Please model this.
Amino acid sequence: MNNNVNINTRNNRKCVTDEHGTVYELDRKLGEGGQGKVYSVKNGRYAIKILQQANQSQREGLRRQIKLVRQLDLKGLNIARPIALLKEPRLGYVMELLTGMEPLSNLIPTPLQFREIDSLVEWYLQGGGLGRRLRLLAKCAEIFSKLHAKGLVYGDPSPNNIFISSSNNSEEVWLIDSDNLRSEDSAIASRLRTTPYAAPEIELGVSGANTLTDAHAFAVIAFKTLSFVHPLMGDLVENGEPEMINQAVQGKLPWVDAPNDDRNRSSFGFPRDMVLSPRLQRLCAKTFGEGLTNPSVRPSVNQWVETLHSAADYILHCQDCESPFYATNKLCSWCNTPRSSFIQLAISQWEPQYGAMLPILQAIALQVNQPRELTRRITRGWVEYQQNHACIRLEAKQEATGILISVQSLDGQSYWLTSDGREKLEVEFGDRPKRFPIDPQRFGSWFLHFGALDRPHRVAKFNLVKGGVS
Model:
């Protein structure tokens, strides 16, 4: 097979033509993998995937696959859809893609960058830091989860076919390479893979792509994006013979954080408690421990969605270096500055018939002068429909008398505030901001109710968490 990708040149412009005769001027290379290369198109919301040159049989296979993908129900999914095949003799297709996107692999240093970067910490933070990585990964997991709910599998997840916003101020995520998509009942025949991310059962040839092989690949991507180390390739693999890589990806070696086997520990990457919440650490242990060779106990992508979002919800920004870190840490993970005071929103389920709250479901960190929006995912729990739709805006201000909280409805609904102190209050609010002080002596605890007071609903309890290291 010829591994070169040929492109027409017109007046020093690189162009390709699709099957309908439309000419596209290529702008820049967005990514490259074993199948080929992906380019952005000048002055348009499209990208071009050009595959390695192939024979007529492979061309017809791609044509059939693109036809199949066009018939799939991808409504509501951020997946770059095929628009047209490229004109022969090239093999590839045109797809939709937002402008200002880049592959997730840009947030993971290459081996060469590892050696040349002066400060990995600064490089990590320049990509948006911990909070942005968590949110991007959560949104990526949402796409996979929704895809699986439709009975479809992606087949070959890797950081090169997950595209993210180039700007740190945006958190858009799209999947490209939609020619990989298969219905789960037909994916057994597909063993297309990117080796460092493929599940052991695919590497061993005992399984085709399915939702759990997608879950393994996503877990590897998440672990590597957050920690800068591959979960299966520790020092034993990095310093060993090439065959050790095969043993690692086939699940024949312990993962880098295996609790009872330190043969494959890694000298690289960030400390796990610096970049992984306790729940994320447990999810990784389950995936790369027992779930590595036993897919039936491997966490699904759906489990990663809420765990990643919850981790991002409990992020603070350092008052000194402004870097994001987990609110569970009393010191900034990046500069050791003591954590500032913040408001914890403890989310529980309210059962009015018992007059009590059930155990805490999740926690959210609210900092002074850093507004936060609560989405349907928080106010109602996991809901596929408009789960990222903003419902309530919160803001904390430091006043002379203490911290003042402002709450405002963003979705046209009415919500309730109650207090359980000496002054017991029940206050309804809507799109006009309502303010209340954090004053335990006078009001006790404040509760933000996401539903009618006489019906079961979620509720947030406001807790003041003091700063410092004591």
The chain is about 25% helix and 25% strand.
